[in-house]
Specification:
The chain is of the alpha+beta class. It is 42% helix and 17% strand.
């Protein structure tokens, strides 16, 4: 599928139960054990259909498609159900219905009456999402037979037996409306929706998945129930199971729970509305409060299954990549825009490709618009070069190949091609990218990226329209009948993520510079490996008044060395099939790597070059300044930014210039405008070094080789100045309750909390962890979520957090929520009531038992992710801890009683100390 989809786009458009809280990165691929489930061993009525690269498709007699992807290397299982229904299937008055159902399916079924509680008790990572052609539900959990059978029982029951009750619609409607309003806060999101509506005059792709506000508010329950019964059926669903499981036993379980669901008697009518060929330029102008300007150009393109889509994917990369893309060079480098973007939608039916730019207020938007159109539509006159095509191809294939080495989220990736027609489209699209020629790409550019096929900000009559004829969607079944794909990726080892096993497998050492290392070699799928490096520097006095230079120094490192330009660094990473990110802040810099065993050594050498030999090119520095300024300006009127800035400044009253001081957006802008390249380079020279660094590597690598290489690269790289950790200082600040106006923002933000004087070795810390987990953690089953979202429908996103230092007697309790401004008094009152109820009545023994089980399983799931494990080992190197600390903490948690937790919560959480801040458009709400 197309890979240049910014994360903010997914958050704005692919809507779901908790997609903002858990943004996902689609991944797929693995090796299934040979002949693990023969035809003779299949349950009656189960048919084996096909197998591609370790994924095997089965079909039940009732029409349910089942994809199995065994992966013994991780102690987790993901169960994902994709229903072939989305916003494109909604009729007049039904917009947003597919998404409303996604919410209501979490409200319970006869055998699973409290789904959020079950998801939390099983320590799962669940979610659901709705898009144009599909809806999916998934949960990732610790790999046990009990958990797997529970998940299959859950998904089979809610497939056809979900309550879809009027009382649940009444409360959840306001939650979904709250989610709708959150999207309305984003100028980009609203502009994109309006432009889509102009680009599509008949097809439902022009309607946003979240739906129309009036439809959300007024949909009758009987119509929603009919929609559910029509589409939530086994013959319209694909069940995917990935992870560590026994394949024959799992097929038997699938048969046990799903085969008893009868094939429905109804026949689903195909979507027959086709978007006509666009016959001239279209335009839309959006006028709203905002802090940045945007220009967006949209063009109709073929469906995701059409052979031309590979050319669209490459063209999107050629135009929209940073820094190699043509739009970046024509707009950002020419200082006509602060940033650009380009992406496309690979849908079941003809979709769109789009390109745009962000322009700072005060700069001419028209100049950026004209340059944007000249660049995109000028491809016919100046077609992509062979170098541009090969670079784009390498970037796209690199991402696919790296994703194929992971299996923990396979269903999330394959839900997209399933929605587009067939899961095997993912592999065929990759194959087409490999074979597409420069000539075919040039023809596609001329065919689709033309004025008459464009939706933008103006209308110009044309006597001789030059129209783009969009080809029909291919017959996917016939096209993929004999498709086999590549050989499956080699499997790794089954790895036990317990603290004891991790400790037994981890080797720790130190280099002469002072750099400490934690190396955990293990066989992984596709021989993948991750590495994290942290460099700590400075002290309270030496860092005074240098935050502005510090936050610019880190991002400059990846923008060029004395040997390579920014583009050459990116090209080398593409060649090595690696991802590398280097960033730095006021007190430390970090680097993250994801690659394979064969490329780890050259990638580490490249990292050494980036860190030790930066060039600080002036042109890149100016681009970075513009990007940083645009980002700050875009967020400074957003309610979360306004409230959180005030919250952090109140609870952390450090003097201006102190490295711990919370700067206002205006102060950040002033710091960036006043910072010089010389100051930024000097900060690097004054502080960067490995004397106080930590390096962790987890995955498939040679331990001795990497230890020697790390010593060679960083062993003599001494930090220029002594490092003395800047402590976090507890402040007993007076509570406050204040509102901040943010005009023209339909969604408001609430934050509450106070400082705590304790470290994570305090005897009460384990009890506070579980207490907070029950108060505001888990999956929609906490006290706050049950009250504010499930019961009263006041907030789409609500929760609480506990952050406690490992080194200082300093911590913070924080609770947040988004909500409609008119509900400000209701939300605050409900929050206070739940806090009082918790402290007065406490948690029950049953609540505590379920919370401990879920929380401990969630920690195991976290340790099963290599990147998260590398981060934990890295932090523990700095703290001089081993995973034995985790084991002891979990032992303490397991031994907790309800009384111990209630006493600890009452001792440390005092409602009289709570600061409450709100930001939103409250005009006329009282």
């Amino acid at each position: 599928m197309t890979h240049r989809k910014p994360s903010f786009l997914l958050r704005l458009l692919i809507v779901g139960s908790c997609c903002v809280a858990n943004p996902f990165t689609p991944v797929v691929g693995a090796q299934a054990p040979a002949a693990s489930t023969g035809t003779a061993s299949l349950p009656a009525g189960v048919e084996r259909v096909t197998s591609v690269e370790g994924l095997t498709e089965y079909r039940l007699a009732n029409g349910l498609k089942v994809l199995l992807f065994p992966d013994p290397t991780k102690e987790t299982i993901t169960v994902n159900v994709t229903y072939l229904v989305g916003s494109s299937h909604e009729n007049y008055g039904e917009t947003g219905m597919a998404h409303l159902l996604e919410h209501l399916v979490f409200k319970g079924s006869p055998r699973h009456t409290n789904i959020p509680q079950e998801l939390t008790e099983h320590g799962s990572r669940p979610n659901g999402s709705t898009w144009t052609d599909r809806t999916n539900y998934f949960e990732t959990f610790a790999a046990t037979d009990i958990n797997l059978e529970w998940a299959l029982d859950l998904e089979s029951d809610r497939m056809v037996n979900s309550f879809i009750a009027k009382k649940d619609l009444d409360s959840e409607m306001t939650v979904v409306r709250n989610e709708f309003e959150a999207g309305e806060n984003s100028p980009f999101g609203v502009l994109l929706q309006r432009t889509m509506a102009s680009a599509y005059i008949w097809h439902n792709y022009g309607k946003t998945t979240i739906g129309a506000r009036s439809d959300i508010e007024n949909v009758p329950i009987d119509r929603l129930q009919a929609f559910y019964k029509r589409y939530y059926q086994p013959d319209n669903a694909v069940l995917l199971i990935a992870g560590k499981f026994d394949e024959p036993k799992t097929i038997a379980l699938v048969h046990k729970y799903f085969a008893k669901i009868a094939r429905p008697a109804r026949t689903l009518e195909p979507v027959y509305t086709l978007e006509p060929t666009q016959d001239g330029e279209r335009s839309v102008t959006l006028r709203r409060v905002g802090d940045t300007q945007l220009v967006l150009a949209m063009y109709h393109v073929p469906s995701g299954a059409h052979e031309d889509y590979a050319a669209i994917d490459v063209l999107t990369q050629v135009l929209g990549d940073t820094p190699s893309g043509r739009l970046h060079k024509a707009l950002v480098e020419a200082k006509k825009a602060s940033s650009i973007f380009g992406f496309g939608f690979q849908w079941r039916e003809p979709g769109v490709g789009m390109f745009g730019a962000e322009v700072r207020v005060g700069s001419p938007l028209e100049a950026a618009r004209d340059t944007l159109l000249e660049t995109v539509e000028g491809l016919s006159a100046t077609p992509p070069t062979k170098e541009e095509v090969e670079r784009a191809r390498a970037q796209l294939l690199k991402n696919i190949e790296l994703d194929l080495n992971r299996s923990d989220q396979i269903g999330l990736t394959l839900s997209e091609p399933i929605g587009a027609g067939d899961w095997r489209l993912y592999f065929m699209h990759r194959d087409r990218l490999r074979k597409i020629t420069t000539e075919e790409i040039q023809k596609a550019a001329a065919r689709y990226f033309k004025p008459s096929n464009r939706t933008l900000g103006m209308f110009i009559p044309t006597k001789q329209p030059d129209r783009a004829e969009i080809p029909p969607t291919p017959d996917v079944v016939a096209m993929l009948k004999d498709y086999k794909g590549d050989a499956a990726v080699a499997a790794g080892e089954a790895f036990d993520p317990s603290p004891a096993n991790i400790e037994n497998r981890t080797a720790r050492s130190a280099a002469p510079s002072g750099l400490t290392m934690a190396l955990l070699p293990k066989k992984t799928r596709g021989a993948t490996v991750v590495a994290q490096l942290a460099l700590r520097y400075g002290d309270e006095k030496s860092l005074m008044n240098r935050t502005g230079a510090a936050v610019l120094a880190g991002p400059m490192l990846m923008r060029g060395t004395t040997k390579r330009t920014r583009q050459q660094i990116q090209d080398e990473l593409d060649r090595l099939k690696a991802r590398m990110n280097v960033f730095g802040g006021a007190t430390q810099a970090n680097a993250m790597i994801e690659t394979t065993r064969e490329n780890l050594v050259p990638v580490l050498r490249l990292l050494g070059e980036v860190l030790r030999d930066p060039a600080f090119p002036p042109d890149e520095f100016e681009q970075l300044r513009q990007e940083q300024l645009a980002g700050i300006e875009q967020g400074r009127s957003q309610p979360p930014q306004v409230a959180m800035t005030a919250f952090n400044r109140h609870l952390g009253p450090y003097p201006k210039g102190d490295v711990r001081y919370t700067r206002t957006p205006e102060e950040q802008i002033a710091d960036i405008n006043s910072a010089t390249l010389q100051q930024v380079a000097q900060f690097y020279r004054d502080f960067y070094g490995a004397s106080n660094g930590q390096l962790t590597v987890v995955g498939d690598f040679d331990q001795k080789e990497i230890a020697q290489l790390a010593t060679e690269l960083f062993g003599k790289w001494k930090s220029p100045r002594p490092f003395v950790r800047v402590p976090s200082v507890y402040s007993d600040v007076a509570p406050m309750n204040q509102s901040f106006p943010t005009p023209d923002k339909p969604n408001a933000f609430f934050v509450a909390g106070f400082n705590l004087k304790l470290r994570d070795d305090h005897p009460d810390y384990p009890a506070l962890l579980i207490g907070n987990y029950m108060l505001g953690g888990g999956f929609l089953n906490s006290r706050l979520a049950t009250r504010l979202r499930q019961k009263e429908g006041l907030s789409y996103g609500v929760g609480s957090g506990l952050n406690v230092s490992s080194l200082d007697e300093y911590g913070r309790f924080t609770a947040t929520a988004i909500y409609a401004p008119q509900n400000v008094e209701k939300l605050e009152a409900a929050f206070k009531e739940e806090m009082d109820r918790m402290l007065k009545d406490g948690f029950t023994t049953e609540e505590v038992a379920a919370a401990k089980t879920g929380y401990l399983q969630s920690r195991q799931v976290s340790r099963a992710q290599d990147n998260e494990l590398a981060g934990r080992l890295n932090n523990f190197l700095f703290l001089d801890r081993t995973l034995q600390w985790d084991a002891e903490l979990e032992k303490k948690i397991q031994a907790l009683s309800a009384d111990q937790i209630n006493v600890a919560m009452r001792r440390h959480l005092d409602p009289k100390r709570i600061t409450i801040l709100k930001a939103g458009d409250f005009k006329g709400t009282r």
